[in-house]
Design goal:
This protein is an all-alpha fold. It is built from 14 helices and two strands; from the N terminus they run ααααααααβααβαααα.
Length: 321
């Protein structure tokens, strides 16, 4: 009887280990399943960024907007159906989120090189975000892999959970806290705005009405964004908008943050976010290191693993089989 109990215990431990091993994310997840998967993703991302530098910011943003809505599960990529109200139609994504065709191409190339759909769309988003940063001059990091894809999306949750460009600091802190992210994560991840552009309607109120803004910067920005109309006109989020550097933080110290939610991180006092903004503005190594750590942390939000979810054959559609 005692030996039977010991046997049962061993079986239990083996099963527990197996579930843990296949449920945990790992940077080596595809090493044996499809070792050419990550090089293939890198190749497609580099080509897309070479063709259009702005695409790097767009792919990074897709991963961020995916993770903040029910976790990093590629729900953002799903098109609308009779049962899915696509997150692409949310206020933060409609006529704004872009790069979906690059993700489609990555999926096609990866599935071809692997011989079948073994790489999830959620993992593709995470790796493409990293490779975009590297392609634009940023440092690399080990992406944790093994996510699976959701079978549903929610425009309602996207509207509720994605941070607004009009948020103040308490609102941003609370928004990130709901995702398990702290103030250091908030400032570091906001540094992703060293890349890309914003549409006029997202910063119009700031450049005409805010007082914590450099006067000349506001005047210059008004050339791109008049008081009415031209809502989709683009302005760079920082002067070196296609290079991953610390200019974003240097701008905040000079009160040249384009979005209200960006300048909210720096008030000119001694608050924790003020100190981080100052530190990152002159210490590129600290920013790169903290950004990488926060990207990994964000990439772990509510992931699906093991037998949860599915590996989609088409990132825009749920598998029906």
């Amino acid at each position: 009887m005692a030996s039977l109990s010991a046997f049962q215990l061993n079986v239990f431990l083996i099963l527990a280990f197996t579930v843990t091993a296949f449920s945990a994310l790992s940077p080596y997840y595809y090493d044996h399943v499809c070792p050419k998967a990550l090089p293939t993703i890198k190749r497609v991302v580099e080509a897309a960024v070479y063709n259009e530098r702005r695409m790097g910011a767009s792919l990074l943003r897709l991963h961020f907007h995916d993770c903040f809505v029910n976790g990093c599960d590629a729900s953002l990529l799903l098109d609308s159906t009779s049962t899915i109200d696509s997150e692409k139609n949310s206020l933060a994504n409609k006529n704004s989120a872009r790069g979906f065709e690059v993700i489609d191409l990555i999926k096609k190339e990866v599935d071809k090189i692997c011989g079948c759909p073994v790489v999830s769309c959620a993992d593709i988003l995470a790796v493409a975000a990293r490779d975009s940063v590297v392609a634009l001059g940023g440092s690399s990091w080990n992406v944790q892999l093994g996510r699976r894809d959701s079978t549903t999306g929610s425009r309602t949750q996207a509207d509720k959970n994605l941070p607004s460009p009009l948020m103040d600091l308490p609102g941003l802190i609370e928004n990130f806290k709901r995702q398990g992210l702290n103030q250091k994560d908030l400032v570091a991840l906001s540094g992703g705005h060293t890349l890309g552009y914003a549409q006029c309607f997202t910063f119009r109120d700031r450049i005409y009405n805010d007082t914590n803004i450099d006067r000349n910067f506001a005047k210059e920005s008004r050339r791109t964004c008049p008081r009415s109309g031209s809502d989709t006109n683009l302005a760079p989020l920082d002067p070196s908008h296609d290079s991953f550097d610390t200019a974003y933080f240097s701008n905040l110290v000079k009160y040249k943050g384009l979005l209200r939610s960006d300048q909210a991180l720096f008030h000119g006092g001694s608050g924790s976010t003020d100190r981080l903004v100052k530190a990152y503005s002159y210490n590129a190594g600290a920013f790169s290191s903290d950004f990488a750590k926060s990207m990994v942390k964000m990439g772990n939000i509510k992931v699906l693993t093991g037998k949860q979810g599915q590996i989609r054959s088409n990132c825009r559609k749920v598998n029906n089989y």
